[in-house]
């Protein structure tokens, strides 16, 4: 990608873009910053190539995910958080202007680096930051709008999620010689259970504070909403489409390709 420059204060690699590509929000406040987490290796996918660079059709998963966010006129800018040794991300073309920041070893550390970069670049405390997984390339535009609308009315934020519909079983493990076998322990009630998705949208300064708490207390979290949970801070649930699946295992590839092809035909 051409015309890159490094912002020494924030550690961000800023990608210049024509002025007519700039995005504005009607009413101007709060600004909405997209932050795509793409620093992981995707070990469960079983590929040497990080899964954000797996191709679905002619584009990588990362390019598809940026394109989904670009479909929202509410998003002001897009920051992609990548691994320190990642050179591929900066060579790709995207559906909207993007900046880059360097992530950490854990997901929350990558988000924390992105938040610090946004604040260093002029982000305001009450701005909204929309965190999205690079491996979720099929989030519907209406879901993006819904979670933004919900977060805009909340003190801390909102996330997309879907109510659990499958019967859930807890396991007990039985050892037989050198092998361990899983058996059913009991059925877990699915009442009130939701599967978290992304985007997850939060107030920028509030997210900075809860991630600092996670770091100070060495907490293990798997999404950003968990950081708010640790401090008993309310985050709104917004029902999202079941099409918004995450590429986790190789068999997810065909399903996502079918969803994207269906969208292209509409």
Features:
29% strand, single chain, 26% helix, globular, Spore Coat Polysaccharide Biosynthesis Protein SpsA, Chain A, 9-stranded mixed β-sheet, 266 residues, two-stranded antiparallel ribbon, 13 strands, disordered N terminus, alpha/beta
Protein described:
This protein has a nine-stranded mixed beta sheet with strand order 1-2-7-6-3-8-12-9-13, sandwiched between helices. Strands 4-5 form a two-stranded antiparallel ribbon. Strands 10-11 form a two-stranded antiparallel ribbon. The relative contact order is 0.17. It is of the alpha/beta class and 266 residues long. It contains six helices and 13 strands. The protein has a single domain, classed as Spore Coat Polysaccharide Biosynthesis Protein SpsA, Chain A. It is globular, with a radius of gyration of 19 Å.
Which SSEs are present, and which pair or pack?
Blueprint: E1 4-7, E2 12-15, E3 32-38, E4 55-56, E5 59-60, H1 61-70, E6 77-82, E7 98-102, H2 107-120, E8 128-133, H3 141-152, E9 157-163, E10 168-176, E11 179-188, E12 194-203, H4 204-216, H5 224-230, E13 236-239, H6 252-265
Parallel strand pairs: 3-6, 3-8, 6-7, 9-13
Antiparallel strand pairs: 1-2, 2-7, 4-5, 8-12, 9-12, 10-11
Q: Label the structural class.
A: alpha/beta
What name does the CATH topology carry? Spore Coat Polysaccharide Biosynthesis Protein SpsA, Chain A
Strand line-up of the largest beta sheet:
1-2-7-6-3-8-12-9-13
Compute the CA-based radius of gyration.
19 Å
SSE order in H/E notation?
EEEEEHEEHEHEEEEHHEH
Q: What is the tally of helical segments?
A: 6
Report the sheet with the most strands, covering strand number, pairing sense and barrel closure: 9 strands, mixed
What count of domains describes the coordinates? 1
Quaternary arrangement of the chains shown? single chain
Strand content: 25-35%
Report how far apart the termini are: 31 Å
CATH architecture: Alpha-Beta Complex
Low-confidence stretches: 1-28
């Amino acid at each position: 990608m051409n015309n890159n420059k490094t912002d020494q204060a924030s550690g961000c690699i800023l990608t210049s873009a024509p002025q007519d590509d700039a995005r504005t929000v009607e009413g101007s406040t709060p600004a909405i910053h997209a932050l795509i987490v793409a620093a992981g290796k995707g070990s469960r996918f079983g590929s040497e190539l990080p899964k954000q660079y797996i191709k679905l059709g002619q584009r990588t998963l990362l390019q598809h995910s940026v394109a989904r966010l670009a479909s929202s006129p509410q998003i002001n800018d897009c920051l992609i958080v990548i691994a320190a040794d990642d050179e591929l991300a900066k060579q790709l073309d995207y559906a909207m202007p993007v900046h880059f920041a360097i992530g950490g070893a854990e997901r929350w550390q990558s988000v924390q680096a992105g938040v610090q970069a946004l604040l260093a670049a002029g982000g305001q405390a009450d701005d909204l930051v929309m965190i999205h997984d690079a491996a979720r390339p099929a989030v519907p535009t209406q879901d993006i709008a819904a979670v933004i609308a919900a977060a805009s009315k909340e003190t801390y934020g909102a996330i997309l999620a879907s109510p659990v519909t499958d019967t859930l079983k807890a396991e007990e493990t039985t050892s037989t010689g050198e092998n361990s076998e899983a058996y059913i322990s009991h059925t877990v009630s699915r009442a009130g259970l939701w599967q978290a998705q992304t985007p997850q949208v939060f107030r920028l300064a509030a997210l900075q504070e809860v991630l600092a708490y996670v770091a100070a207390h060495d907490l293990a979290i798997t999404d950003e909403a968990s950081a708010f949970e640790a401090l008993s801070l309310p985050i709104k649930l917004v029902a999202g489409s079941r099409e918004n699946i995450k590429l986790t295992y190789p068999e997810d590839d065909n399903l996502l390709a079918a969803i994207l092809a269906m969208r292209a035909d509409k």
